[in-house]
Amino acid sequence: MKKYLLSFLTVLTPLLTFAQDVEEVGIDQQIDQAFKPVSDFFSSVIFFEVAPDTPFVIVLLVGSAAFFTIYFGFPNIRFFGKAVNTVRGKYEDIEKYGAKELYGEGGIAQGTDMTKVDSLDKHLETVDELAVDGDIVDTIRDESSDGEVSHFQALATAVSGTVGNGNIAGVALAIALGGPGATFWMIVCGLLGMSTKFVECTLGVQYRDVGPDGTVYGGPMYYLSKGLKERGFAWLGKIAAVLFAIFCIGGSFGGGNAAQSNQATIVIKEMFDWESTLAGTIVGVVLAILVGIIIIGGIKRIAKVTEKVVPLMAVMYIICCLYIIFSNFSLIDDAIGLIVEEAFNPTAIGVGGLIGVLLVGFKRAAFSNEAGAGSASIAHSAVKTKYSASEGLVALLEPFIDTVVICSMTALVIIIFNFGGDAAGATIFQYGGDGAGGVMIDGVSYEGAGITSEAFAAYIPYSDVFLTIAVVLFAVSTMISWSYYGLQSWKYLFGRGRVADLTYKFLFLLFVVIGAAASMKSIWDFSDAMIFAMVFPNMIGLYFLFPVVKKQLNRYLDAIKLKRNAIDD
Question: Would you say 179 and 415 are in contact if contact means Cβ atoms under 8 Å apart?
Answer without folding.
Answer: no
